[in-house]
Amino acid sequence: MSSQITGAQSLVRSLEAAGADVVFGIPGGAILPAYDPLYDAEHLRHILVRHEQGAGHAAEGYAQATGRVGVCIATSGPGATNLVTPIADAYMDSVPLVAITGQVPSGAIGTDAFQEADICGITLPITKHNFLVASADDIPRTIAEAFHLASTGRPGPVLVDLPKDILQATTSVLPADVWPPTLCLPGYRPVTRPHGKQIREAARMISAARRPVLYVGGGVLKARAAAELRTLAELTGIPVVTTLMARGAFPDSHPQHLGMPGMHGSVAAVTALQKSDLLIALGARFDDRVTGRLSSFAPKAAVIHADIDPAEIGKNRVADVPIVGDCREVIGDLVAALQGEPRADLAGWWRQVDGWRRTYPLGYDRPTDGSVAPQYVIERLGRIAGPEALYVAGVGQHQMWAAQFISYEHPYTWLNSGGLGTMGYAVPAAMGAKVGRPEATVWAIDGDGCFQMTNQELATCALEGIPIKVAIINNGSLGMVRQWQTLFYDQRYSNTDLGTRPDGAGTSAGTSGGPGAGAASSAPRGARRVPDFVRLAEALGCVGMRCESPDEVDATIDKAMAIDDAPVVVDFVVHRDAMVWPMVAAGASNDEIRIARDIAPDFDYEEA
Ligand SMILES: Cc1ncc(C[n+]2csc(CCOP(=O)(O)OP(=O)(O)O)c2C)c(N)n1
Ligand SMILES: [Mg+2]
């Protein structure tokens, strides 16, 4: 009656005890002992990815879609360093992630052993915490602590590094006997309950404000506070803006919603913040992409700043009323404090805000040459797949259009890499989201550049039965960078042409993709598509489709929607010169928002 198990067995049982049901990873020498008990784990599915970056983003997608902790696993050295990008991504976007890495045996640490990398050192500034485990006895407690740290307070990534000898050692500390282990995290006690005095002061300011705005960030989603937010918004009648990380936290169709603020935000959202007298920042962090030039951001506004992370408060903008706490509790308390209180009349403010909204709605030009507007593809996708689907974007122009032109009605239906802006996020994150929400339709909306960074995970999707759908918005270039070259580098397109479609496709010089059409591109490529995304998709075990005309957009999306038993990739060949508007140039003041090149909104006219 031996009650000894190996460290590796303890790891697998501890992950199960912590509630993990899926782990994304790739084996290798140092982590190999853990893969043996994984082989017959009953409650933990391992999904073999093709690149560790894919494992990390898949775990993030799973976490963002479900609210649970995402788990990824890799071997030492290059396996671990391949996780660095998704770990940094999770850190910037506060995603609960536990990364398990193998490490060289304890005795070899520090000797430049084969596949040794100091992953704890490397990830120190991009993890909430990391552990180098020193004894197999410590594994249950360490895993419990990692899950606790990742998912409480401000969520974030935690790394657990396990030397091979620790995985191979035996231990009599059985997870089943000790679960839940007593955590040993001195000093870690996130404040979730807001201070009553701060709430009262905030309520007083909200009642008196004449031009207030609810500035809603991703923290509201992390706190699962969308319902409370709606109650607060409807009780007060205050206009709402949702940041890139908060899309879906408040229904886009709600009459009080002004859309997204920031560099590519709506004129109404950006301008309402600029002219506000009170910003009620909830789980938002005054990111430079929202504030524009900080010194001229919302110059007349007082600030109520609620965040679970005290380090965020006052970091970029001084808060008149700082509130440390969980957004759900904060909003609930604000609602209670405001109930039945008299409030300033917001009719004049709404007249102004509605004027901006009416005069400057989001829009785009239809190409006159018969090519497809990328915004049109995304708009139709949102309409046809509907508000119950999940949309997962890459990084670039397509990401901004996906944030602008899809109507998000529910929380956790919009996933993207906001803080780090990681190209390659979409396909693996969509894979993880689909694993977490198998009943939902999951569309990755990706760029032709981003897609080439991580599309190998489509092989994982095909073999593991994870039928995601991918819309490649193929503009033939690193479009967002090209947009900056158009605007700020005199149209000198240095190294942004990708050659993913025939020359001339989707330009005013070409037809929609006829062989050799046009010669407008900088590098002559003839009729080649490198890569041919349809054939690439098929090679990866997916269904591949192409759409090159506006008339085919709906039918193509319908066809993709009808396929449920395989991943689908659609190559949407779109107009190559489309740009993202509105735009506030980097470093400029939000007062200098442009609705098209050199065209500023006419606020004087509107206010007259
Ligand atoms: C890993 C990484 N490398 C470089 C960048 C810089 N970058 C931001 S957007 C972009 C272009 C993305 O191109 P594509 O995927 O085709 O999207 P598009 O803008 O054309 O829609 C680049 C290179 C980045 N964000 N991430
Ligand atoms: Mg592109």
TrEMBL record:
Signal peptide: none
Gene Ontology MF annotations: acetolactate synthase activity; flavin adenine dinucleotide binding; magnesium ion binding; thiamine pyrophosphate binding
SUPFAM superfamilies cross-referenced by the UniProt entry: DHS-like NAD/FAD-binding domain, Thiamin diphosphate-binding fold (THDP-binding)
Name listed for the protein in its UniProt record: Acetolactate synthase
GO cellular component, one term: acetolactate synthase complex
Matches recorded under Pfam families: TPP_enzyme_C, TPP_enzyme_M, TPP_enzyme_N
Record-linked InterPro entries: Acetolactate_synth_lsu, AHAS_TPP, DHS-like_NAD/FAD-binding_dom, THDP-binding, Thiamin_PyroP_enz_cen_dom, Thiamin_PyroP_enz_TPP-bd_dom, TPP-bd_CS, TPP_enz
Domain Thiamine pyrophosphate enzyme TPP-binding: 394-572
Organism of provenance: Candidatus Protofrankia datiscae
